[in-house]
Structures are given as structure tokens and as C-alpha cells.
Amino acid sequence: MLRRACHFSSAKVCLFALAGMTLLSQAQQPAKSFLPESPGAQAIAQAVPPPSNVGNSEIQFNCPGSFPSDLTLLNCRYTGRQRLDQFLTTGVTDEAMAQSIFGSIFTQYATHSPGEWPQDWTHYGYRVGTSYAGSVGRASAELIVGFILHDDPRHIKCSDDPQLFGARSSSDTPFACTKRQRFFHALLDSITVRPSSPGEIVHLQPGGPQFDEKSFRHSYRRLPALDRLVGVYAAGYAQYPWQPRSANTFGAISQRAALSFGTTFLGSFYTEYGSAIFSKRKKKPQPPPSRAGSSRSTP
Amino acid sequence: MKINPLLQALSSLAVATSLLGCVADRPYRQPVSALHVPPEPGKPSPSASLPVGNPCTEDRYTMTPKSNGQGRPIKNSSRPCIAYVEFNDQGKQSVPGQLNQATALIRKAIHDDPQHQPVILTFIHGWKHNASPGPPEDSNIQGFEHVLNYLYDTAYGGSDCTDATGPCTPIAGHLVVGIYIGWRGEIISHEWPVTRTLSLYSRGEAATRVGQGDDLEKALRQISNTAHPSETTNSPTQPMLVLVGHSFGARVLENAMNKLYLPFFEEKKSNQTQVPTFFADLIIYVNSAASADVAVPMLDYLARERLEFREDLPNLPPGNGLGRERPLMLSITTPADAATGVLFPIAMGGEAILKKVSGSLGGQQAISCYHPATQTISKNTSKSQFAFHASTAAHMDLIQSHEVIDLGMPPAAGMVSNCPAPGSPDSYSYGIPSRCFLIEPKKPLAGEEDRCNNTPYWILNTDGNIIPDHGTIFTNRLIRFIGEFLPTATATQISVPRLATKQQTRARQLQLH
Asked: Fewest C-beta in 10 Å: which of A45, B19, B68, B439?
């Protein structure tokens, strides 16, 4: 899951707990948009004429959420290795441990749940242990169900969603979203996933003879997030052996599952709005008056 | 106090498994595997590394038929090669033989290139990366490979269609060589994201140590001497050497440059002539995670010496140095880089507070500003040492030299080359399919008459459409953007900008008129 977490940003977010673990776990997808790109543009050899396709109106669709012209993307598939990494980072290793350790302080002193457990070190240990067991249970269930269903659980921004391709366009993105659409997209994205089968990078040419918008949208269709549903309940039931009887009823487990789902929900909203929150605003200089001439000057 | 057995077991498990997350302090590329041919785009890697004797070091490329390409080497016969040079935590070279292999690779590329002008790209990775061949190979190496392949395929290959009457002819182009400089940027594996994050300060210190170390200085000097040997200093053609550092890699590179370049300038100054830099054609810091105070010695020196860097004006004898202004060093970032824009000040601010309390940081930071119009140098003390320590250079308004202006319009007819022409000879225009940008000298800050940074060390904050975040740097858009600032290259020649004082240039301009 944390494909991009190796980068500086997510790490520092984590260090200073600016947005807690949610930020870290959601940072694997950079904030990117689909923009048209010319594939064969000149790099250094300015005097060498560009290939004939430079500057045409082709839209290079890399992958949902990816930056156009990213040279490192050869495939959009959510791979088995990525799924395993997500399992390890969110369910087994230090992120899960930290969540359990700090989350248990909250459950011990703020919510005092389960009520049968007193607020002492021994039961703090139980709380940490059961919470960690829940993390492992949830991550394991998501790994197995996701593997069976071949889904792609990565969150994407509204403006990156292939489902909205062609629905509304502006000068800088064909996937432009309104405020309302963004909010509902974040909501929807938390309970749905996409199939991971559309692996190849698609080069789009809207209106072109080879482009079929319908089949394109279908290949990125939304599916119910069964892995998340099973995962949150697995987290609840994984704690079953240690929890007191009153906390092991279906209602209580559903309550814990709903709470556990909160991290997914926050993650989806962070994906939608996070880049705007954590990007430094650039002071926009006044553009100079438009100048005559239509070609790039090369002295 | 009695500890819960469950808690005890969990603690033991945590400690035991944490140890599994440690990344060994060892070199990844022994001499026999220090050369590597990146896979061609879209094809699987034949192997992580190839032994010596591969196409990187053997004369194996074939020539095109005379009728088709005038006897140039056939594309794909000499794909880009990478040499690795690794440094340990103390800044010492891990495997001495690696540097010799790297220089041998450069020499061979110079020899094999039809115009003896290969493109030599040197990259220093940042935090959480190293030279690991994997599997999976470090993602920075993969990105670097893609860039080398891209340069080879699109900038230095393709078809030459300048002859409108005849068919396009293939251009063999220049050879492309990569030098990947590895250091111990990763000490905890990615499966341990929280612990890994805690290595921030330790890796920052390591980056500074490597950058200030004698071994890196020696390595960069040797790479530069091989790429730009002194006998070619007056040649209008020479290989193109570009040094790039990303994030903490930029901190490594910037520290090394402070150590290397200042004596180099002094040496050149004694010549009293316009000379090509021949150390490197461009030094680039991308999303640098170095404090702005690291840039101060270089900016101070360049301002005090009134140095500038200009291309030749065509139709005049080579070496005139009267053409467009170019950067010698380029520090670029983006407002979308939350890591260096928002979080770096928080991280370094904490450190700066400790330094301030201990008394090692305080007062205002003086920086020299050169004003070409009046030919005067002033000292700017408007920012504190604290501010310089807690910000990166590219995010600091005071020392930015240029600004990227979003014209807010798509290129005419969708052609990125059809963006409006820049208004002055020292401005640049840049286009992506949905946007046109102008890159112009920065306007003075409020209350100032002139920008402070008029040096060939260009510092600019770009745009989220050019660099989308901290880590996504291996993109077509960024390569093209950087390409704007590189010396003009043709299939047969790379022009060499000249370093001179502004007075020298002005005198030559007057002479010309």
C-alpha cells in the first residue's frame, strides 16, 4: 500500500503526527491529475525536430491518480506485491503496533471500553493486544478477499476518476469536479473499489476512432468494497477470544467494525482534500500582457 | 510492577521483528556488477546486473548503412549504461573499483559517440533509497533507467525530418551514460514505515557527511575531469555532463559543490578570460531537502564575483559568450511539494529552536545581492538565520532568482511548442498540452528595487503541473522543463556556455556594437 510512502512527504507527516496514521497509509497515491501530454517532446536536443506526433491533442492516460508523463509507469495493475506490502504495513508492522499502542490509550481513558476491564497496566496490555489482533485480522481478511476478487482498493481523487471521463471538461482537466461531486466522490470511494485488471496504460484520444468511452469507463467500474466489509468484521471477530462476553455480541462487534471503518473513511477524504491542505500555496504572479508571436523563441 | 505477559510477548515480538526491518550497511554493487544495462522500455529486465564484458564496455554496436544514416551507430546497439558509485555512512567510498569503472564507462562513451559528445547524467538519490538491485530494484534506480532510456530514445534518437524534400533519416544521436551515486539513504525497510520515518534526522546528518566527505569530492572531480578533460576546454563541443540530486541527495550534492566549486571558481578567476565551466554543464537540485543556509556561501560568492553564464551568440566566433543567460546551478521545487514546503520547516524548525537555545543560531543572516543595473553589491539582512535554517532555498522568496508564470492558457492548436514567445532574451517559455508558462527573472520583493539573486545559481519554485509532489520526478514534463536550461544541443554539436563576470560581458557587448 505504501508505494509512495518511501518518499519524504508521507514520512514527515507521520513523524509530526499532523494527520496521524491515516495520512501515512493514504500517501501511496500522489495527488495527480489527468492532463493531456505529448509523448515525444524534445528533451535536450532543442534543434532536432520533434517527432511528428509532438503537440497533438492526445491525452495520455497513465493510471488512475498518476501524473501524466510519468516515465516509471508501465502498468496500472494493483500487484500482489503491493497487496502484500499493504498487509504488512497496515496490519503487522510498526504502523499497526503504533495504532494499537496509542489507540488503546484512547479506549482505556476516553471511551473506557470494554467497561469490564479496569484502567490498569494489565488491562492496557489486553487492550493493546486485542487491538493489534484486530489489525492483523482486518489486514489478513482484506488480503485474502482482495486477492480472490482481484480488486484495486487504492483511493483516487474525483478529478482522477476514469468514471467521470468526458462527463465535464475544463481547459486543464477533462475530469473536472464540482465541490459537491468531490464530497460525494470521497464518500463513494470509501465504500467501493475498482477492478485491478486494466493493467496496461491507455492512450486516450477523445472522439478518435479507436476510443470507446463506454468500455473505458467499464474497465474502471466501481465494485462494492467487500474486502473492507469483511476486513472490519474480521477485525471485530479477531478480538473475540480476549474480549469480555458483552463485547462479543454482533451489535458490539458491528460497532467496533464501524469504528474501524472510520480510518478508511478518513483516508478517502484525505486523498480528495489532502494535497490541497498540505501543499504550500504559491503566490500567483500577475501574468504579463499577452505578447504577439506564436512560436517559441530560440536565440 | 507486574507486566502483563501479553504485553511482554508483544514487546518482544516488536523488538524482534523491528530488527528484521533493518537494512544492512553494505555496498550493493561490487565491481563486477557495477555496470548495468537498463531494460528497454516495455521489455522485462534481462537481469539485475550484467558482468563486465557487456555492451557497456565492449565495442559491439554496428553501423547503419551509408545510404540510411551515414555510418552512424545503429540505435539499440549501444543502449544507455549505468555505473554505480557507492558511499558508506561515513562518506567513504564503499568499493574503490567502482569509480574506475564509472570513468572507464565515460571514456568509452566519449570514444564511441560519433561526435564524442555523450550525455552523462549523474544522479544522487535521496532519503529511503539506495543502490539496491533488489528485487525489486530501488525505485529511484528504476526511475533513473527510464530517464536514460527516454533521453536516448526521444532526445537523441528518432528521425531527422529537416529535409522537407526527402524522407526522414534516422538519427543515431548521442550515447547516454548514467552514473548513480548511492549512499545509505535507507536504514529501515519500507515495511516499517513509522520506524523508517524516525530515521529522518539520522539520514539528514548522513547526507551532510557524505556531501562534505573527501571521497565524494574526489569522485565528482574525477567524473568531471573524465567528461570534460582540460585539453577540450576551449573546444566548442564536449560531452554534456549533468549532475542531479534529489531531496537529501540534493543536500549531498550541494554540500559537495560548496567544497568543490568555490576553489574551482578561484582557479578560473585567475585566468581572467571567459572560459567554459567544464566542471559540469548543469547542476540540478530537485526538491532539495537542504536548508537555505547551505546555499548561502555559493550565492554570496557568485554575487560578489558578479559571475554570469551565457551561451554563445550564433553567427559570431565560438566562445563569444554573448547569447542567452543560462543557469550553472538550478534549484527547483514545486508548491505541491509538501515535504520540503510544509513539513521541512516544521522538522528543521524544531532543530533550529534547539540550536537557538544552545546559542549556535541567532541573529540575522547576511547575504550578498548583486544589482546589475547599478553594478553594486548590497548586503541583505532581512531574514534571520533561523528562517534560513528552517526553509529550503527554493521555497524562500528572498533568494529565488526566477518565477514560473502560469499564463493560464492552452498552447495554440494544442502544440506545446506554440506557447507565446518570451518577451526578453533572458526569459524562457515552456508548454505542456494544457498550459503555457513563462520563466522570467523574479520581480523584486515589496520594498526592494531589485531581486537579490542575480547569479547563475537559479532558484525557482515551479508549478504543480510540472512537478506534482516531492517524489514524482522521473517524468517527461520535468525532463523537458530542465531541458530548457541545458546548453543548446543539436545532433552534431552541444554548444558550451561561457562563464564570465558581468563586466566582461558588458565590455564585449559594447565592443560588438
From this structure: B19
Q: Is the per-residue pLDDT at B227 higher than 60?
A: yes
3-state secondary structure of A235: helix
Kindly determine whether residue B150 and residue A71, on different chains, have CB atoms separated by under 8 Å. yes
**B residues 222-241 lying closer than 8 A (beta carbon) to A:** 240
Read off the amino acid at residue B132.
Answer: S
**Spatial CA neighbour of A257 closest among A144, A142, A88, A146:** A142
User: Max alpha carbon distance in chain A (Å)?
Assistant: 81
Q: Provide the residue ranges of all domains of chain B, joining segments of one domain with +.
A: 19-408+442-512, 409-441
Q: What is the residue type of B290?
A: A
Determine the distance from the C-alpha atom of residue B259 to the mean position of all C-alpha atoms in its chain, rounded to a whole number: 17
Residue A163 lies in a domain: yes
Q: Does B6 touch chain A (CB under 8 A)?
A: yes
Q: Does residue A117 have a pLDDT over 80?
A: yes
Query: Which residues of chain B does A93 touch, with a Cβ-Cβ cutoff of 8 Å?
Result: 17, 21, 191-193
Q: Do A44 and B240 make contact, defined as CB atoms within 8 angstroms?
A: yes
Provide the residue range defining the domain that includes A106. 8-37+57-277
A172 within a domain of the structure (yes/no) = yes
Dump pLDDT digits (tens) for B35-89: 555 554 444 444 434 333 455 655 544 444 444 444 444 443 467 888 899 999 9
% pLDDT > 70, chain A: 62
Domain assignment present for residue A296? The answer is no
B183 touches chain A (CB under 8 A): no
d(CA B223, CA A296) in angstroms, rounded, equals: 34
Counting the structural domains of chain A, the total is 1
Domain presence at residue A291: no
By the CB < 8 Å criterion, does B171 face chain A? yes
Task: Give the residue from A67, A105, A136, A271 with the most B CB atoms within 10 Å of its CB, the best one to mutate.
Answer: A67
| pLDDT tops 70 at residue A45 | no
Q: Are the C-beta atoms of residues A299 and B320 closer than 8 Å to each other?
A: no
Greatest mean pLDDT range, A169-173, B294-298, B448-452: B294-298
Is B134 within 8 Å of chain A by CB?
Answer: no
Give residue B512's pLDDT: 65
Please tell me which of the candidates B193, B289, B314 has its beta carbon nearest to residue A95. B193
Report how far apart, in Å, the C-alpha atoms of B52 and of each of B30, B31, B36, B101, B432 are. 11, 8, 9, 9, 41
For A174, nearest residue in chain B (alpha carbons)? B434
Percent of residues, chain B, with pLDDT higher than 90: 24
User: Highest mean pLDDT range out of B72-81, B263-272, B300-309?
Assistant: B300-309
